Amino acid sequence: MKIQRYEPISKKCRELLHGADYNPDQWMKTPEIWDEDMRLMKLAGCNVMSVGIFSWSSLEPEEGRFEFDWLDTILDKMAENKVYAILATPTGSKPAWMSQKYPEILRVQENRQRNLHGQRHNHCFTSPLYREKASIINRKLAERYKDHPALIAWHISNEYGGECHCELCQEAFRSWLKNKYHNDLEGLNHAWWTGFWSHRFNDWSQLESPSPHGENLVHGHNLDWKRFVTDQTIDFYKNEIKPLRELTPDIPVTTNFMGTYTGLNYWKFAKEVDVVSWDSYPSWHNDYDKAWELASDISFVQDINRSLKGGKPFMLMESTPSLVNWQPTCKLKRPGMHLLSSIQALAHGSDTVQYFQWRKGRGSSEKFHGAVVDHCGHENTRVFGDVAQVGLALKKLEDVVGTTVRPEVAIIYDWENRWAIDDAQGFSKDRRNYEQTCKVHYRTFWNKGVPVDVIDMDCDFSNYKLLVAPMLYMVRPGVGERIEEFVKSGGSFVTTYASGYVDENDLCFLGGFPGPLRKVTGIWAEEIDSLYPTDSNGIILPDGCMPGLKREYKAVDFCELIHAETAQTLGVYSKDFYAGRPALTVNSFGQGKAWYMAARFDEGFLTDFYSSLIAQLELKKVLGTELPPGVTAQVRSDGFNEYIFVMNFSEEQRIVDFGEDKAEDMLTGEKGLASVLLKPYGAAVLRRVNC
Ligand code: GLA
Ligand code: ZN
Q1: Per-residue pLDDT tens for 371-407?
Q2: Same domain, yes or no, for 594 and 662?
Q3: 318 CA: nearest ligand 1 atom
Q4: What are the start-end ranges of the H helices in 254-315?
Q5: Same domain assignment for residues 238 and 291
Q6: pTM of the entire predicted model
Q7: For this structure, is 552 an active site residue?
Q8: Ligand 1 atom, smallest distance to 324 CA
């Protein structure tokens, strides 16, 4: 697929954006701080601020009385100082008067208890009243600021999440179900398998949301509820953006996602935003991950965010310049890590580096959260220096805006599949780890600098050479056929144990697992064995079965007992009563091949297996040479220039060789480089002309 540069996030600016959540309304009593903020923003190389995220009580202190003077002043100051505004709608939290007068807007928990006023993200997403209030304030903001020179994008609410179980939501859920099942209650009874435990419904009014003290074991029900929550949240969001679309049709709209947050299916939500944005808070330097493993896991999530809109650059809406206040241990970013982790976001397709938050507040629960400006109030801090360094780097990297990557590899990480896996009873409850499993399959590509898209199962597969689908437990209608088509026309497909068990309603496939994947994989999975943490099995691979593989590897957690039907057995189990039975198979199907890993093999196996596939399929690496441990290389391109991000997540100095290639280091300006020396947590961005 030919690469072309995307338009920048806003027509008003062609730069990479650098900034933070900015809460000037917390400093109304000391407006001199606002001027100091402007001075410091310039010093830090910041050109954007997200304003007004939780400002409702400052914007509408009493019902129907609006106060915009403070925001006028701030936006004018920002425009004067060439700082763009991403203006937020304030619905992430609401004024006390509103909850007091209209208690129906308060969220009801799963246990059917209504929350008191307080905290944030505490509203009902169905309440017509809350929707109306949101619509009024949003319209006022759009009317007032539609032509403001600072405005470049809308930040809708904040981190939508959670669910409400009030009567209004129950009614909405019932209507959603009626619509989904075309008014056919029998259809619902079948999809939810309600013959089980006498769960049949004979009237729509009997249906309600899952609850800890009510129904929560009907898997189709749980799935539909989660789908409803996504749809209802999107519906709420659509109500929020209506006045903005009407009054500011050219201003892009986004809402900040939360990585792999399970509560919302971001694949559905992404269709409704103009640009994807997300908040990233890795626990760098923890004592349980190696730095590079955590880095690879974060890259995986960055890749989801780029893939959500088919490769379109996204925004890193929040990250911390130093520490967070909510992790069990709030460790500072070590020297180098701030620039490195910011470059990492760019490397995977972000056109922004933004923080929570600009200035530390004096009170309340986030007063110790990292910020660009600390309580000391001046610029002479380590963190401010780190931020200013990122500001300088982003200026040098401006050409990267709008560029992207077209990987040859895709990994399926699917939200609905995750819901179904997490809900299943059986296997080993605490070791299914779907997300972590996908991340471990991703690592070899990261280590070798092979770009990857992370997609859901409804995406188009046809542009990839290799499609990896770990634990594809749920297979929605048409997916099996599309995978067959992909392999038939020459694609390579890898899947694992626990795939092809259930359909979109979480009903088991009849006639043998992996259901719709049986033909393409050429195997039948008869049983699955769960291993205790102290157990293990192994796989034995005869010499030469696959280049680069060793004779033996470990298998843990899950071992499926499979039959090779049309598939060829590459490796067999080493132990237990199923010793000698197939553990790894490959099936030639049309012009392509499908591999099946019947067990959860150790990471050594995955490294060798995927390295072998990368070689066999001649998958493109960003650099032609081997990367040293802990270093990855990622690429973005406009079809002519390639921007190569080389990042060292190890604590040692590394030298990266480019082989024949000569490149320019965009950060230092050095040209004609054949290698680069990276300090611990060091990064380089190279420009290479690709003819
Ligand atoms: C989230 C929120 C922010 C802030 C940060 C703290 O991402 O969106 O308002 O609370 O967490 O890490
Ligand atoms: Zn509700």
Answers
A1: 999 999 999 999 999 999 999 999 999 999 999 999 9
A2: no
A3: 7
A4: 266-270, 291-307
A5: yes
A6: 0.98
A7: no
A8: 12
